[in-house]
Each structure stands twice: as C-alpha cells, then as structure tokens.
Amino acid sequence: VFKSTVTNQSLWHSMRSNLPISSGIQLRLYSSNGKKDGTYEYGASSTSASLGMETQNPKRSAQGPSVSSQPTLEQIQVKVKAILKKRDYGSTYTQNNFITGMRALNEFCLKPSDLEKLRKIRRRSPHDDTEAFTVYLRSDVEAKALEVHGSREALLRAKKQRQNEEVIHKENHFRNQKLMREYREFLGNTMPRSTKSTPFLEGPGKVVMVAICINGLNFVFKLIAWIYTGSASMFSEAIHSLADTCNQVLLAVGISQSSRHPDPGHPYGFTNMRYIASLISGVGIFMMGAGLSWYHGIIGLIHPHHIESLTWAYFILAGSLVSEGATLLVAVNELRKSAQAKGINFYQYVMHGHDPTTNVVLLEDAAAVLGVLLAAGCMGLTSLTDNPYYDSIGSLGVGTLLGAVSTFLIYTNTEALIGRSIEPENVQSLTELLENDPSVRAVHDVKATDMGLNTVRFKAEIDFDGRIVTRSYLEKQDIEVVLQEIQQVKTPEDLEAFMLKHGDNIIDTLGAEVDRLERALKLKYPDVRHVDLEIL
Questions:
Q1: Residue 504 has pLDDT above 80, yes or no
Q2: 152-164 pLDDT, tens per residue?
Q3: Which residues constitute the domain of residue 265?
Q4: What ranges does the record list as Polar residues composition bias (predicted)?
C-alpha cells in the first residue's frame, strides 16, 4: 500500500477552532493505486478531534490538553479503501477459452500430431459416461494453425478445401448406401443376422403388423361381398377395412422412423414420428373412411336400388367380427401392460395418448367391431323389410363412427405434438426432490414435457445456495494449504490471484452439483432423458 505524507494548511485553518490545541497537522493518506490524486474515503476516529481523525501521540491524549503556547506538528492517519482496477475484457481475453481436440482438428485443419506438444488441460466432462476430458487453449491452437499453414489466408483456403471434401464425402457415402441397398435387394443380404429384436416383433410394432394382415384380408373379402351384393353397408365396411390397412401401414412407417438414432440435425431424435404418423392416420380415416361412407350412404338414399342375397355377406361379416375382435384383444392387452408399467389405469393411458400407434389400432378395431354389428343390423332390417333405405342408413352410421374416431385421434396427437406435460404428481415429485436437496434454495419455472416413446424433457431454474456449494468445495481441499495461501495474501494482486484460483474451482464444483442433481432426477423418473437445469 502506498503511503504518502502531506501537510494541508487549509485543513488546519478549518479545523483550528475545533482542536483543543494550536498545532500544525500532518495527514498520512493511504492509497491502493499509488496516486496522490483521486477520491479518498476517510473512516478513522479520534478523541482529540471531532472530525474523526486518529492522533499518533497517545501520551498527549492521556495527559489531557497541553497549556504550551508553542505550535506543534501532529500526525494523523487516514485509511483509504482499496479497490481493484476494473478490467476491460476484450477479444484477447476470450482467446484463453478452451477448445476440444475434435473441434481443433476440424476448425483449424490440423492433424493429431500437431496437438501433441500443446498445453493440455483436464476439465470436468458434461457427459455422464466420462469423468474428465482433455481441452486446449484456443490461443495455442490458433498459433499452431498459423505455424502449420503459414498465414490466415492459407488457413481459410484449407478450411474451404476441407468443406469441399466433406461435401464430396457425403455424396460418396450416399452413393455407397444406395449401392448397398441395391445389393441387398437383388443379391441378398450377406451380413450375419442380428440377434437384436426388431420393433415389429414386440410391443406396438407387433400389434400394428397383426392389424395390417387381418385388415388386409378383411378388405379383400368385404370387397368381394360388395361386388356380389351391391350393399351400401358392405361397401362402407370394405372402405373401412381399406382405410384401416392403409393407416396401419403408415403407422408401421412411423414406428420404423421413430426408432432412428439422434443425429446433428435432430439432436432429440425422431420419437415424434409416431405422433405424426398417427395424426396423418386420423386425417386419412376421416377423409377416406368417413367421407366415402357418407357419400355412398347419401347416394343410396337418393337413388335406392334392389339388393341381392345377403347370405354371403353375413358370413363375411361374421368372419370379420372374429378377426377384428382378435386384433382388438391384442391391442387391449398391449395397452394394459404399458399402463401398468407407467402406474396409471387403462382409461388414463388411452385418453392421454401415451402410445399413439397402439391407440390407433385399438380405436380402429373398436370402430370396426361396432361397424360390423351396425352394418349387419341394417342389412338384416333390409332383408326383413325389403327396404334399401336401412342399408344406406347403416353406411351413414359407419361413416359417423369413423368420423368420431378420427376426431379423437387428431385431437390427442395434436396435443402430443404441441408439447404435453407429464402427470402433475410426477412433476411435483421431481420438484420436491430438487427442493429437498441442501444445495438448492429455490426451484422456479419447472417444465416437464412428454416427447413421446417414454422420453421426457425436464427443465427448471435453480437458485443454488452458494454457502453449501463453497463448503462442498472446501471439504475436498487441504485446509492447511488454504490457510497458508491466505496468510501469503499481502497486496490486492495477491488477493485477486487467490480469488481467481478458488473461484474457478468453485464454479467446477457448482457444475458437479448440477450433474449430481441431473443423475438423481433420471434415477427418480427413468423416462427423463433430457435435463436442463438453469442456474439463477
């Protein structure tokens, strides 16, 4: 600390009437920046001066005021607050940012051998499966890149060349994939069979494949019966089975796409493809199934015609009832198992659309069973009364049934695509887990979104208790070493170095606390796959 001594005569004249003695005053001002000018704070106290100054002559204070008429020079000390100079962090400071080895190789067109002699720093990894990883200083990497390439212009040319090579590589990769597909189609797949089960041998995929086979056969038989009888109700049932078959093929495509792994363009994966396929399926049911059924029913009412023998139609409807009922039971069993796994009842699972593909099969088959019964009843009335209007009314009833199913599917899948929260009980449970943690003072703006396919994204803003985080850091340190570092702090520069060192380590400790909370959330609710905890 700089120490300066000045004699301020004007201060003496202003204080003369308040001092008990007639004396000159010597002020000692303490500054942190070594300059005489500037703003100073006076904070000392004294019993001999009413302005808050402290004398350096304790004997005189103890003996009382002097009666000598000779003027004396009296020293007082004034303490000045030490403040660090504010720094301007420009682009040069950000050159000390860290960069991973992979980014260094890609962005600066370097080779792995170029990074061997650079300074390596071990940092905490953001990934659960890696404890720490190596990073480099960006300034070191840029300097090495300039050394390797010779100039910034040469570096830019190398980057452009690498981009062109990446484009060519992607084109070749796409061409090779196309050749491999052609090879498998015409010459057979010579790769060994995978022991991993495909998505169509279990769960919703199995239900969809069974429904495709049964509804396809039902469509063929109903079409033959309609051609033979000319019944409007039978035509509606044939269209119904065709719509179901097409929609379930679309569901199979959605299941296949949803199982794709995330890529840089789709970091959260393709789980919503099931909801998209189900939404399109609902629209298809409405347009193809309900629309054609209504159209054919209205035409039958306007232009009624005689219906041939319905004996074969009854047999086909009976077979369709059995097959549709079997598919309905498969869908019900699958949904019941999934509902039990989630800890909710069957009704809640269906109404919230947790499994969109199986829901579509369930509702389509339920509508098919009811449609078969409705068509058979209207055809029976037509046979008994010889009135074709009953048959047309049956076609309108089947169309109305399909319209109701499609409306429900469109609504539930739209809600899922918009972004639907998980059950409030689960949200409350996850929030309480965070609030009960000692390092958390408050939790705000909690959002838990169901992304489909048993995948939940959880987001919350956390107000951490800095004292607990700091104590957690100190528990891992050698206190004797820390105390020695504190004793060596003599100047503001020493204090700055001490705080920067331990402040950086405390930030790493805070990151470790965030990782710990994320693991706890995923353990509490396994469907939570993506956790975003923002620090307030």
A1: yes
A2: 888 888 888 888 8
A3: 204-418
A4: 44-71
